[in-house]
Design brief:
28% helix, 5 strands, Cytidine Deaminase, domain 2, alpha+beta, five-stranded mixed sheet
Length: 135
Amino acid sequence: MKKKPAIDWAALAAAARAAAARAYAPYSKYRVGAALLADDGTVFAGCNVENASYGLTNCAERTALFKAVSEGRRSFRAIAIAGGTAKAPALPCGACRQVLAEFCPPDLPVAVLPLRGGAPVVRALRDYLPHSFSL
């Protein structure tokens, strides 16, 4: 069995921050970006896309995941999420946690980091959603 290369957290962080710069957030002004690493090494980036009807807003994490799934990927190694500040980085919301749990293993490394500066804090998906719903 071929060993997978180490996760390049600096590259994932850069991709997540670049995605955040493309966010459409005219209402909240709260930009978030995500970079999802597929098993084949492809990185799928996504940003939050707001809507005047807030319930129709899509988060960065789901944007990245939906892009990956729509391109045929179903297996993932890590995700980096950039948003907020060093004291309060953006954490995935409950909907994003559940959608990630649909496609990702419980031990998926989830890195959260502020938009500017600061090192990522990495925890397993199971730490964010210990009792996910499944059928």
